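Shipment paperwork, digital attachment
Item: protein structure file
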Amino acid sequence: MKDTIAILCGGGPAPGINSVISSVSMAFLDSGFRVLGIHEGYKGLLSPEPNIQEIDFRFADDIHKRGGSALKMSRYKPKDSEFNTQFFLDFNVKLLVTIGGDDTASTANRLGKYLRAHDVDIQNIHVPKTIDNDLPLPDNTPTFGYQSAKQEGVRIAQTVYEDARTSGNWFVTAAMGREAGHLAFGIGAASHFPMIVIPEMFNKTEVTFDRIIKLIISAIVKRKILGIGYGVAIVSEGVFHFMSEDEIKNSGIDFTYDEHGHPELGNVSKAHIFNVLLQNRLKKLGLKVKSRPVELGYELRCVAPVAFDLMYCGLLGYGVKKLFDEGQTACMVTASNSGKIAPLYLEDVSDASGKVMPRLVNIDGEKPKLIFEHGLQFIEPGDYEEAKVWLKNPKDYDFREILGW
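Attachment content:
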């Protein structure tokens, strides 16, 4: 029986998944391996009758430039008790390639240990994926999918900005981000939005809805001073990760709750939440400003990858073959800007509990400093007198006062 490699995808989509599948497959097919794709992630892999996709050169070649994933994805996270050796023995699998986030990688390591303990000689190599750009890769290398998602986000954001200008309204945009604000920051900075709100900004004070809304109003009033009655603010959904549950529950938004009494944030548009709270505050202040919500989420995950990710994902795929040939296992593949391939072990980027430490926006870095100092519009002490036309106490809406900077 031919030596086989198996590929599965876990978590949510990101542009470039098919490019990784394609490049991994071509590299191993060229070396005489059989390549099998597994649909539905670990759920499919551990099923008594897994849904298998035989990957040949034509299939790999066809999917290279496509968005989405040719292999159906799943967030299923199996328990150790569900592990078995059947699939790996039946198909003589020598390598399990997983494409996903830190949960997918952690599960692959657990499964790899189980298989080796049951005399199944197998390597496992993980390809890190997320549009959030929040995995701690060496040399600040981006995660694959981020550049493509940002590009599509900017395309939509520029259209939204034109709508704001055309209609004379404000738009409140929310962008995916889990814990980190990379995507919101990248889209907002590229689009010259007058206000960007990311969780990393609150390095000297607590994240609250009140402060977020004040930051948006600071931009609205500053633009009024400049004679501009429209604009767009973008907020990273990552701010919710750093809010207390009481802050969320007491927001006045009507949430559904899970069986443990926690607000189900996934059922509500984040842009809707911010826009409702903004409108309520504007009415209290007597400011007649119309605003509309726009969510940048699922629209970004399955777009076709841009040139950067097409090349990058190719390097990662070929890198899997290189690490396999070197005998590496239980690691992530990384590719530097120069194309240098190196393994990254989860234990080197995890905390004591085993959780991978997220890479946040370096708020003290040169790029964020330039953007926040020169790229946004907000109230400063020199604006107080003019701002009194709209605000009784402009100091409360001073950008740096709000953040404690």
